[in-house]
From TrEMBL, chains A, B:
InterPro entries documented for this protein: Cyt_c-like_dom, Cyt_c-like_dom_sf, Cytochrome_c_Oxidase_Subunit
Name of one Pfam family that matches: Cytochrom_C
Taxonomy, superkingdom: Bacteria
Official protein name in the record: Cytochrome c
Length: 96, 96
């Protein structure tokens, strides 16, 4: 899934991603639910969208003070793994 | 909720937002679940995050070919209402 639209992108490893959440979880949670009103929920998010977002934060194309700092240190593998982890969280939706 | 961090922002009306989803639903669904691999899920997303994202797409600060076109025509009220609608969708999360 992580390879959608990203030439050469590798498939992420959700279990490895789970071990790399030290920084992410403060705002996005281990459960993918936002812990502050500035941070989005990531639980069950589309994997490709997460990979593209992290890559855009890393390159600076997408601007956010916290995320530009955090993403700068992530390798392509880290990005794929963390995206795979959050995407793997199952979500049930109850429309209003 | 929509007012977090946005001076002067108005609270959105989820029921009004539901009536304004004609364009959104093709990619993000009425249920807030992505209908294509380029589009994120929006179900239960943090309202303030949705408002800021739409405002950034409208201003061009955040780049996405589809979203820059779509957001250009949204008023502040439209943005608040659509954000309130997607945020109002209840989501249950089952961590792996």
């Amino acid at each position: 899934m992580a390879a959608f639209g990203l030439a050469g992108a590798q498939a992420g490893d959700a279990r490895a991603g789970r071990q790399k959440l030290t920084t992410c979880q403060g705002c996005h949670g281990l459960d993918g639910l936002s812990k502050n009103p500035e941070a989005p929920n990531l639980a069950g998010q589309i994997e490709n969208y997460l990979v593209r977002s992290l890559a855009a934060y890393k390159s600076g194309e997408r601007k956010n003070e916290s995320m530009n700092i955090v993403a700068k240190d992530l390798s392509d593998e880290d990005i794929a793994d963390v995206a795979a982890y959050y995407a793997s969280i199952q979500v049930d939706v109850l429309p209003p």
